[in-house]
Amino acid sequence: MSEKEFVSYRERLEGEVYDFMKRAEEERGVDFSVAIAHHTFLNPIVMRNVLKTREAEGREWFFLIILFVEASTVEESVEQVNCSEV
User: Fold this and answer.
1) Residue 42 contacts residue 8 (beta carbons within 8 Å)
2) Residuewise pLDDT in 10s, the chain (86 residues)
């Protein structure tokens, strides 16, 4: 995936998450107060950017973002680093 494709993918995810949260809040009449970003690569970046967008609109920033790191994710990251050094 090229840098341009990656940025496009990330921005699309941000738009989808933002739109989902906005729709859900409108339907339920309650604002989100906690964001859970599962895994440690793109999801936390997407949530951070969505929260920054919401904050720029005058919405409250979530002070708690919970990340789950699985051992397999760490192992895969180490393997990728080791393979890129060869």
Assistant:
1) no
2) 889 999 999 999 999 999 999 999 999 999 998 888 877 678 888 988 999 999 999 988 776 566 666 666 666 666 666 665 44
Structure tokens at 62: 């979530």
Q: How many CB atoms lie within 10 A of CB 18?
A: 17
Residue 83: partners with Cβ closer than 8 Å, 6 or more residues away: none
User: What predicted TM-score, i.e. pTM, was given to this entire model?
Assistant: 0.72
Q: Work out the angle at residue 77's Cα, subtended by the Cα atoms of residues 35 and 1, and round it to the nearest 5 degrees.
A: 80
Report the first-to-last Cα separation within the chain, whole angstroms: 20
CA angle 26, 30, 34 (to 5 degrees): 115
Tell me which residue has tokens 């090229």.
2
